[in-house]
Specification:
10 helices, alpha/beta, 5 strands, about 280 residues, globular
């Protein structure tokens, strides 16, 4: 709560820290945390847990980069990243949550949603893809939907990546200048860029309706990408307590000798990728 005589300010107004992260520290700490994520995944698999992690936030807030660092050392068979495209005409006629239900985890799995059913409370609301009645119904039914998931044994963890308008604009400009990132700027992103306040109001209404004790929103100060990644991974590790169940390293016996009558085909008979590296 703000002190008397002061105005309460949001995370976007006053990020926790804008200090850059030392590169050597970041790489060392990320490597350490990724080992812990592997241990956590093995515990989730061994205990048959079911975990859903939701990543929401403004465009260019750093959700995708955080998800990439979380999953790059994990077994993709048990850690699924789901980033659904716009609904098809058929999906638009279904129960709103229906297409997400198909991606919920089975025992021993973690699902990471790069945007989620909260599209309805955010981009669909602001861009006019959902009616006021549809948004109102979503805000009323979403908490019950999540409570139903939790009662069924699914743990729901929700992260909101928060950036200032200045930092978002800087990242948009960076995407324009970098040909490898230009694909990230869709017409929808450019239109959303003009609706900062509308998205802020939508996010506030979403939090007010869906920040429930069983599945609270956790705000990630994402003004500095590397800092946000380390913070969210550390927090995720604490949300699913685990024990180190890493199996002992097996002892590899000597390889059997190659059969003497086997003759490799000549190199000239195969198509070899050219070596262009100096």
């Amino acid at each position: 709560m703000a002190a008397p005589g002061t105005t309460a300010r949001s995370v976007e107004d006053t990020p926790t820290s804008t200090r850059k992260v030392d590169k050597a520290y970041y790489e060392e700490e990320l490597a350490r945390l990724q080992v812990e994520l592997v241990k956590q995944q093995e515990f989730i698999r061994a205990k048959g847990l079911k975990v859903v992690v939701i990543f929401e936030g403004r465009d260019a807030a750093g959700k995708g980069g955080a998800i990439q660092r979380i999953t790059e050392s994990l077994n993709p068979r048990a850690a699924h990243v789901v980033a659904l495209p716009a609904p098809t005409e058929r999906e638009k006629t279904q129960w709103y949550f229906q297409r997400y239900v198909a991606h919920l985890p089975a025992a021993g799995e973690m699902v990471l949603l790069d945007r989620s059913w909260y599209n309805r409370a955010g981009v669909e609301r602001v861009m006019g893809f959902a009616t006021d009645a549809e948004v109102e119904e979503f805000l009323r039914s979403c908490p019950e939907f999540e409570r139903m998931l939790i009662r069924s044994g699914i743990q729901v963890i929700k992260y909101w990546f928060s950036v200032s308008d200045t930092e978002q604009e800087k990242r948009f400009q960076g995407r324009v200048e970098d040909p490898t990132k230009r694909w990230k700027l869709s017409p929808m992103d450019l239109e959303a860029r003009n609706r900062w306040v509308d998205f802020s109001r939508a996010k506030d209404a979403m939090f007010a309706a869906t920040d429930i004790p069983e599945a609270p929103w956790w705000v990630v100060d994402a003004e500095v990408k590397k800092r946000a990644r380390l913070n969210v991974i550390t927090h995720l590790l604490a949300q699913v307590p685990y024990e180190d169940l890493t199996p002992e390293a097996p002892e590899l016996p000597p390889r059997p000798p190659i059969e003497s009558d086997y003759v490799r085909p000549p190199r000239e008979s195969q198509n070899i990728v050219p070596d262009v590296v100096p």
